[in-house]
UniProtKB/TrEMBL annotation, chain B:
Belongs to the acyl-CoA dehydrogenase family. Signal peptide: none annotated. It holds the Pfam family Acyl-CoA_dh_N. SUPFAM superfamilies: Acyl-CoA dehydrogenase C-terminal domain-like, Acyl-CoA dehydrogenase NM domain-like. The keyword Flavoprotein applies. Residues 7-119 form the Acyl-CoA dehydrogenase/oxidase N-terminal domain. Residues 190-326 form the Acyl-CoA dehydrogenase/oxidase C-terminal domain. This is Acyl-CoA/acyl-ACP dehydrogenase. Keywords: FAD, Flavoprotein, Oxidoreductase.
Length: 405, 351
């Protein structure tokens, strides 16, 4: 079927051409963010938010960010945000990581629950939860996994039984990030006792100090309680705390997981800054590092991959700004950044050699302990937010269209 | 900031993809293997009729005046189809090399660019350091390196010795020729600059084709996983098989950004384009190499046969991987830029 010649253009391409320069407004936005961050980022790093004091310090930082209206830049201005588009969000993230600003203790809230509330929440729910999330008054934990429902999340058994205008929750959640000191938790619970798999689940928000809740901290590889088990024993929750309608929990949760795998959880600036520090580390230790020629190669590779992740994010953000949607290809993101993070830190520890095993507080560690911290955290990357094996299944079945098992 | 293609660019891509899928079928590629010289004037005429031979030729020479960014998605589709005709090198390397000649050669420039645009001439380009020239036998004009010099030599003035490639669609020749003042069209600093630009364009052209080839190999392998049944199920339902393909999909997805970034840098004549171009070539070559390795595995013994179409694309990928700078060259360029401290790196430095 030959194509008619008229299908081809006879003049240079019309329409909006690709433009890889920042507009004057985008440059001004970057300058404003940079100036505020330079004036406000704590001079000394905060303690880990997986300690009680560090948690409080990070909560105070959330409040400070919010006062400057830099806490949730993508939120609408009416909710204390700046109504930023995704390109501006990327610019802000670049400045945030460039400034070495603290990790976001409320990332479960701001980046996962926040967008979900805006999509599925009633006006009353938005008014009730979003402002307190913005100020750091409510720090959110998440409750997806259960002892019998990890990668197989649809195997959830924790029940929320409807009794009048309340749900009564019984069951157990685990690997609940930030739950030790957080104020609220969101998760999905089985509201239809006769339902199977992903049917009959409801997305529910509840305070962690509700009577009947027991939080048992779990120490992570670094010895700190970064997550917890949550036991629910006849916990009463008003029905208005359900988000997106009873029985719609799987649907709502998948959209949250989409944000998590997709753009919002791991902005590329994080890896670009880690790669920059890795290049520096290599340059300062080149003589010893070059005894293994694979190290220089790995450093170069890590930098290229951090750039590739950045480019992919800008491609995706540009598509979304034109009205596109995040599709199954977002599963490739999660694999890419989690494996990149591992390689960045493995390479750093190879360069550090004997010093690499030293904990941040060890007298001889200097500042090398950060790399070990990052290395430990990087081990979790391919596991959380849906294991990389699950992501590969999703890519194969939904992106490539391969036969289901 | 808008890192996306225009609707027109995406429309061309769709149009060219459907044309190539219908006209450049595996059956037609196999038929061409049996033809002396392996090329087809009728197919070239079809490409010309679509306007493809005029795309990057400036309008004053009768072309459409489009740039590398306009052509990059088409180059990807040419890779996907395994198009054997030298369209991509002519458009992305040969034409810009001629365009870069100075006014002393205005007549030669106009003569050949106009002929390329109207479809009566094809170009072959000698990659510096590569003893073989692809498609020299169907080229009307050869652009050849001699030290830093660029020489424009008509085919009648050269002797060709065919060298068989693992890819039966490739036509490679040693070229016997005599450089002279009459054939020299650029020298010294200008020659160095033109060859450096040509090498970047060649790498870009191959990167785009390699990405298309990678996608084609995945598509062929995925189709096969439905057809082939073992243990009572399509083999594609097994996770071990799925994950081989998913790993390639990840590489393909993250090669797109570097490729389009590089095309933009070249189209806009940005300084420091060597690093983005090398990134693109490395990322696309690695995606294609992994696609080949995993696609043959997924095909099982069938993938090792002449009968199954996979090898049409796999062999092309193996070959293009090494042309216009092998991985060693491109890695060395990135390393030099990255480790000598000249490159600004970190958050906010990508564009």
């Amino acid at each position: 079927m030959p194509l008619s010649a008229s299908a081809m253009p006879n003049s240079p391409v019309e329409g909006m051409p690709m433009d890889l320069t920042y507009t004057a407004a985008q440059q001004a936005f970057r300058a404003e963010a940079r100036a505020w961050l330079e004036a406000n980022v704590p001079a000394r790093p905060l303690q880990s938010f997986d300690t009680e004091q560090g948690f409080a310090e990070h909560r105070a930082w959330e409040a400070r960010l919010n006062e400057g209206r830099w806490g949730m830049v993508t939120w609408p201005t009416a909710l204390g945000g700046r109504g930023c588009d995704l390109i501006e969000w990327l610019i802000f993230e670049e400045e945030y990581y460039r400034a070495g600003a603290p990790a976001r203790v409320n990332q479960n809230g701001i980046f996962l629950l926040g967008p979900t509330l805006m999509e599925y929440g009633s006006d009353a729910q938005k008014a009730r939860f979003l402002p307190r999330m913005a100020t750091g008054t409510d720090i959110w934990a998440q409750a997806w996994s259960e002892p019998g429902a990890g990668s197989d999340m649809a195997a959830i058994r924790s029940r929320a039984e409807r009794v009048g205008d309340h749900y009564v929750i019984n069951g157990q959640k685990t690997w609940s990030t930030r739950a030790v000191w957080a104020d609220w938790v969101f998760g999905i619970f089985r509201t239809d006792p006769n339902s199977q798999r992903h049917h009959g689940l409801t997305f529910i928000l509840l305070p962690l100090d509700s009577p009947g809740i027991t939080v048992r901290p779990i120490e992570q590889l670094n010895g700190l309680p970064g997550f917890a088990e949550i036991f629910f024993d006849d916990v009463k929750v008003p029905v208005e705390n359900a988000l997106g309608g009873e029985g719609m929990g799987w649907h709502v949760a998948m959209s949250t997981a989409g944000f998590e795998r997709g753009l919002m959880l791991r902005s590329p600036a994080r890896y670009q800054e880690t790669a920059r520090r890795l290049v520096q580390l290599y340059q300062h230790n080149r003589e010893s590092a070059d005894r293994d020629p694979a190290i220089g190669e790995a450093v170069m590779r890590a930098w290229l991959d951090a750039e590739a992740y950045t480019l992919a994010t800008y491609l995706c953000a540009s598509q979304l700004e034109k009205g596109g949607k995040i599709g199954p290809e977002s599963s490739t993101n999660k694999i890419f950044w989690s494996e990149l993070d591992q390689r960045l830190h493995e390479t750093a520890l190879s360069i550090l050699g004997l010093r690499g095993e030293l904990l941040p507080g060890a007298p001889a560690a200097g500042d090398v302990g950060q790399w070990l911290d990052g290395f430990l955290f990087a081990q979790a990357g391919p596991i959380y937010a849906g294991t990389n094996e699950i992501q590969r299944n999703i890519i194969a079945e939904r992106m490539l269209g391969m036969p289901r098992a | 900031m808008d890192f996306s293609f225009s609707s027109d660019q995406l429309l061309f891509q769709d149009n060219i993809r459907s044309f190539l899928l219908n006209e450049v079928t595996p059956e037609r590629l196999r038929e061409l293997w049996l033809v002396d010289g392996g090329r087809c004037d009728a197919l070239w005429a079809q490409l010309v009729e679509l306007g493809l031979s005029a795309m990057t030729v400036p309008e004053i020479h009768g072309g459409m005046g489009m740039d590398e960014l306009d052509f990059i998605l088409l180059a990807q589709e040419c890779g996907y189809a395994g198009l054997p005709e030298p369209l991509v090198e002519t458009m992305l390397v040969g034409v810009p090399l001629l365009v870069g000649l100075d006014e002393r050669h205005a007549a030669l420039k106009h003569h050949w660019l106009a002929r390329v645009a109207e479809g009566t001439a094809r170009l072959a380009i000698g990659e510096p350091g590569n003893p073989l020239v692809s498609d020299a036998h169907v080229a009307d004009l050869l652009l050849l390196p001699y030290g830093d010099e660029v020489h424009a030599v008509e085919r009648a003035a050269v002797g060709l010795t065919h060298n068989a490639s693992v890819d039966p669609s490739r036509q490679l020749f040693q070229v016997e020729w005599a450089p002279s003042a009459a054939t020299c069209v650029a020298e010294g600093e200008q020659g160095r600059r033109l060859w450096a630009a040509a090498c970047n364009r060649g790498a870009l052209a191959n990167a785009a084709q390699l990405l298309g080839l990678a996608k084609r190999m995945v598509d062929l392998a995925v189709d096969y996983t439905f057809e082939r049944k073992q243990f009572g199920k399509p083999v594609g339902s097994f996770q071990a098989v799925k994950h081989l393909m998913a790993n390639v999909a990840v590489q393909i997805e993250f090669a797109k950004g570097p490729l389009y970034r590089a095309a933009y840098a070249v189209a806009h004549g940005q300084p420091g384009q060597a690093v983005p171009v090398s990134h693109a070539k490395l990322a696309c070559a690695e995606a294609a190499a992994l696609a080949a390795k995993h696609a043959i595995q997924v095909h099982g013994a069938m993938g090792y046969t002449w009968e199954v179409d996979l090898h049409l694309f796999m062999k092309r990928a193996w070959a293009l991987d090494k042309v216009w700078g092998d991985r060693g060259l491109h890695k060395a360029r990135v390393r030099a830029a990255l480790f000598d401290g000249q490159l600004a790196i970190g958050a906010g430095t990508t564009f």
